[in-house]
């Protein structure tokens, strides 16, 4: 059953009133315009009718106004329907946006020109370990790694001056647990109605696992290159000393390690460095323990000596790990070494090859198997 486009009603009718009719229409079909056409409506009654929701009133003695009154009421009703549709679409859009923002795994944020976060979604908890309320109102760079924070502080003023955003800016952040997370950031400038920049709105994606996987692939490729070059070196070398020197050099040049050293067991049951190549500060970690006895009693044992004594691979990851000396990670940090692996050499170990990395590395099972 179709609905009327407009309702015309007298103000006074036997047994029924126009105001009662208006009340029914407002309750059942408020979108339909209601016009009084009457010869008895007074000024006060007309004002009350308009206040109660009537679109217009026309006196019977002036029916020439009826057509324009109807047309105006229809235009107003159409405009109201359009506005209601827009408002409904806006509410639905806002709800969809809110659902997306609150369910996405990416960190969505907004900051002002003072770098203060004024909005963050709940994903920041999964990514950095902080509740949204703990991040709101804080400097947006406060949790960033110092070196990356310095980069942003250097670049951001130029972006602000140009009213430009950024895309896929890879930056490192500190998780609440102390670990480092790598986030890929994209942001757009937020402008006020006058076109002035008032802040940035962006989205950060956790790419830590991808970055680690890419780094691992590069490390494995370098290790394969070392092994290939070492195989050729074995055929070319004239003696063992030359081969050991070349092995250390290849580990640094082809493998990308910061330094490499080989220590050999002496007849006095000590270890001495016989071959080395790379960063002097890293190699000094070995040289400082030259001719140290393999008897660990009462001695702070560095990882390469433990590897020799136990004939097992010893890995020190990110300045902490399997070494027996609490001072070794601190010494590594002072030398600019982020990770180290000690590999026994020979079926019956006669020495140890120590590889030092300048960037954090995990040395997982696949890498260790290649290095054996």
Automatic annotation (TrEMBL):
Ranges for domain PAS come to 93-163
Task: Offer an example of a GO molecular function term for this protein.
Answer: kinase activity
Q: Does the keyword Transferase apply?
A: yes
Under CDD domains, the record lists: PAS
- Domain named Response regulatory: residues: 1-75
Q: What is this protein called?
A: PAS/PAC sensor protein
The PAC domain is annotated at: 167-219
Q: What NCBIfam families does this protein's entry cite?
A: sensory_box
Q: Which GO terms describe its biological process?
A: phosphorelay signal transduction system; regulation of DNA-templated transcription
UniProt xrefs under SUPFAM superfamilies:
CheY-like, GAF domain-like, PYP-like sensor domain (PAS domain)
Pfam families assigned to the protein according to its UniProt record, in alphabetical order: GAF_2, PAS, Response_reg
Coiled coil ranges (UniProt) are none
Keywords, sorted A to Z: Kinase, Transferase
PANTHER family xref list: DIGUANYLATE CYCLASE DGCP (PTHR44757), MEMBRANE PROTEIN (PTHR44757:SF10)
């Amino acid at each position: 059953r179709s609905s009327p486009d407009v309702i015309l009603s007298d103000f006074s009718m036997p047994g029924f009133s126009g105001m009662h009719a208006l009340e029914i229409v407002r309750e059942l079909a408020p979108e339909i315009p209601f016009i009084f056409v009457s010869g008895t409506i007074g000024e006060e009654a007309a004002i009350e009718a308009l206040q109660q929701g009537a679109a217009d009133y026309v006196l019977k003695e002036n029916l020439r106004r009826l057509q324009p009154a109807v047309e105006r009421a229809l235009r107003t009703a159409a405009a109201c329907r359009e506005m209601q549709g827009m408002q409904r679409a806006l509410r639905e859009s806002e709800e969809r946006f809110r659902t997306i923002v609150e369910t996405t795994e990416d960190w969505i944020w907004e900051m002002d020109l003072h770098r203060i976060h004024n909005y963050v979604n709940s994903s920041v908890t999964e990514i950095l370990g902080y509740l949204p309320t703990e991040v709101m109102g804080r400097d947006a760079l406060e949790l960033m790694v110092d070196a990356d924070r310095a980069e942003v502080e250097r670049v951001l003023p130029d972006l602000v001056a140009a009213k430009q955003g950024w895309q896929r800016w890879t930056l490192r952040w500190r998780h609440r647990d102390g670990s480092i997370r790598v986030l890929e950031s994209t942001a757009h400038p937020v402008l006020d109605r006058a076109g002035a920049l008032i802040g940035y709105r962006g989205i950060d994606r956790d790419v830590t696992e991808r970055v680690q996987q890419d780094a691992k692939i590069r490390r494995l490729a370098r290790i394969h290159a070392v092994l290939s070059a070492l195989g050729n070196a074995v055929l070319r070398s004239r003696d063992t000393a030359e081969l050991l020197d070349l092995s250390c050099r290849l580990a640094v040049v082809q493998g990308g390690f910061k330094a490499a050293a080989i220590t050999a067991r002496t007849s006095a049951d000590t270890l001495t460095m016989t071959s080395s190549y790379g960063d002097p500060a890293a190699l000094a970690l070995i040289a400082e323990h030259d001719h140290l006895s393999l008897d660990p009693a009462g001695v702070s044992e560095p990882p390469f000596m433990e590897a020799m004594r136990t004939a097992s691979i010893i890995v020190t990851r990110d300045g902490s790990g399997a070494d027996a000396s609490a001072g070794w990670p601190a010494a590594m940090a002072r030398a600019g070494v982020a990770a180290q692996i000690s590999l026994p050499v020979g079926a019956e170990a006669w020495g140890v090859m120590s590889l030092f990395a300048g960037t954090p590395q995990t040395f997982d099972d696949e890498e260790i198997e290649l290095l054996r």
